[in-house]
Amino acid sequence: ECGIPMLLYEAGEALRFDEISIRAGVTGIINVMRALEMLPPSRSKPKTQLEPVVARSSAWVRAPDSGILRAMVPLGARVKKDTLLGVVADPFGAREVNITAPVNGIVIGKTQLPLVNEGNALYHIARFESTREAEATVDEFREEHEPEFIPAPDPESPII
Predict the structure, then answer these.
(1) Mean pLDDT of 121-134
(2) Long-range contacts (CB closer than 8 Å, 24 or more residues apart) made by 141-150
(3) What backbone torsions phi and psi does residue 136 show, to the nearest 5 degrees?
(4) Could you give the percent of the chain with pLDDT greater than 90?
(5) Selecting from 3.40.1180.10, 3.30.43.10, 2.40.50.100, 2.10.110.10, what CATH number does the domain 57-145 have?
């Protein structure tokens, strides 16, 4: 209403700090602000730009029944139609319902809760012109934004 540019970035999971989402968001917002000349250009050598990939559509796969979800597919995975995403079982394992991908795509969202009720959103799958290109972009993004792995000290090493 006031004609003031605004950026809104949504990522990660509710009530959690997600290092990769935070890092990517801060980098993205700074890049947009530089492009709008709200910040001076970067003095460092620019990194290779990832080619954006736009999803044609997306949809949530919902729980057909209540129970305990055994998730089989991680976030960011490329799936084909009818890929087994997970299994919802009753607490005693007497009844199991397979959850399959309704389309080819990339998993862009996934519940973190093992207990699900009928109708709960389980997996968010995005469809792309080229799922292979989208998967490659996801992999490049991960490599660029994941914190470096620092191995924990050996528990058997002496304390000095």
Answers:
(1) 85
(2) 141/24, 141/50, 142/20, 142/76, 144/47, 144/50, 145/20, 145/23, 145/24, 145/27, 146/20, 147/19, 147/20, 147/23
(3) -65, -40
(4) 36
(5) 2.40.50.100
